[in-house]
Design a protein that fits this description.
Blueprint (H helix, E strand, L loop, with lengths): L3 E3 L3 E7 L2 E9 L3 H14 L5 E8 L7 E5 L9 H10 L2 E2 L1 E8 L6 H19 L2 E3 L3 E8 L4 H10 L3 E7 L3 E8 L3 H7 L4 E4 L3
Parallel strand pairs: 1-6
Antiparallel strand pairs: 1-8, 2-3, 3-7, 4-5, 4-7, 9-11, 9-12, 10-11
Helix pairs in contact: 2-3
InterPro entries: EFG_III/V, Impact, Impact_N, Impact_N_sf, Impact_YigZ-like, Ribosomal_Su5_D2-typ_SF, UPF0029_Impact_C, UPF0029_Impact_CS
Family: Belongs to the IMPACT family.
Protein name: YigZ family protein
Length: 198
């Protein structure tokens, strides 16, 4: 499962035969999050003619959650070309929304397809991408005396500490790359115990 994800939101603008195409790309992890961005842009650009979009949640080569919408443009001329760009570039966990202001000159089906694909590509050209890393949350059970060492090991593996509970022992809830869980267990063998089922 090797694909790229978007680090931060980007925008790009194209003018084609007096029509303005404003492309926005956002990192997303759910359809609900993706649709939230579509609705925000509908409010922000309330006078625009179309809000066409495509998203991919997860692996773009083996996706179970992808969607697109032509939003009133002729079928297949907007959402599908945007989705094709994302799949071709192997970018997952992303939505691209293209806001269109009609300039009075009809582009035709081929022209629209090229315009929306070009807008999506312009957004991709602005992107800072990073490889997708599967994350997992685990719990570490430690003694009070070894808590600091456990924190050090988690941070050395670029993990984050989400929660700490104190009772007879210390329970640290942490998030780190799935690939680093075994290393975490090995490095904590003396200082704490990783619970397999948090």
């Amino acid at each position: 499962m090797s694909y790229q994800t978007l680090k931060r939101a980007v925008t790009a603008r194209l003018e084609i035969k007096k029509s303005d195409f404003i492309a926005y790309a956002y990192p997303v992890h759910s359809r609900e999050q993706a649709m939230f961005h579509v609705e925000q842009l509908r409010v922000q650009y309330a006078d625009a003619r179309h809000y066409c979009w495509a998203y991919i949640i997860g692996d773009p080569d083996n996706t179970t959650s992808a969607g697109f919408d032509d939003d009133g443009e002729p079928s297949g001329t907007a959402g599908r070309p945007i989705l094709n760009v994302l799949q071709h570039k192997s970018i997952g966990n992303v939505i691209i929304i293209v806001v269109r202001y009609f300039g009075g000159i009809k582009l035709g089906a081929g022209g629209l397809t090229r315009a929306y694909a070009g807008s999506a590509q312009a957004a991709v050209d602005q992107m800072t991408l990073s490889p997708y890393v599967a994350m997992a949350q685990v719990q570490i059970l430690a003694e009070f005396a070894t808590e600091a060492q456990c924190r050090y090991v988690v941070e050395s593996l670029n993990g984050s500490i989400d929660d700490v509970t104190y009772s007879k022992q210390v329970t640290l809830t942490v998030t780190l790359a799935e690939a680093d869980i075994e290393t975490l267990k090995e490095r904590l063998a003396m200082d704490g115990r990783v619970l397999d089922d948090p």
